[in-house]
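User: Please run a holo structure prediction.
Assistant: Happy to. Please share the sequence and the ligand.
User: Here you go; the ligand is zinc ion.
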Amino acid sequence: MQVAPSILSADFGHLSRDVEAICDGGCDLVHVDVMDGHFVPNLTIGPVVVETVANAATKPLDIHLMVENNPFFVDLFAPLKPAYISFHIEEEKHPHRLIQKIRSRGIKPAIVLNPHTPPEAIEYLLSDLDMVLLMSVNPGFGGQHFIDSVIPKAQKLKAMIEKHNPQCRIEVDGGVNDNNIKRLADAGVDIVVAGSFVYKHPKGVKEAIASLRVKSE
Ligand code: DX5
Ligand code: ZN
């Protein structure tokens, strides 16, 4: 199981320090939540701040767009060379075109599904994707309660991926902690995003990341 801490729960007054802490603490990816105040009722960070994150990070960036006008934001963030850019299928009329645009910039394309969106919505896109991100909360905020229906959904998606594109990874985002990670691992999830669990852990970020790994086994 790979762990991608979300910097949404970091202390933005000490952002570089908090990015270094998760990288030194053994994370696999640095998850960056970009919100525009339109697609979701919250506003986060743009390329100026994400450049600071990229400079501090020694692990690849995983940029999660929660925005309207995805192509505009892909152009803004592509120069920072993230490993992944993921966009919401609920907000994209031309997903194949956007996947090609992301891939043409040397970045792995991923699609995000909100909790209510069925995996069948992206069946004909799976062969073109490097990752599918399943939301296990309604996007917009850290610290929300895990929605359990993501477990059978991940199982269903895993079966579809085996058929269409076995290399495609499954990531889950929202309310992930050491109580639900084993069920996610058993359902076929490859990567978890964890914000508040990692940054608010009483023993610190390194212990938090390690405990997610141990509990996933
Ligand atoms: C929510 C974001 C998540 C969030 C996760 O819209 O996409 O990445 O930061 O935070 P936790 O782990 O606290 O639910
Ligand atoms: Zn996210």
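Residues 6, 31, 33, 64, 173, 193 surround zinc ion (ligand 2) (CB under 6 Å).
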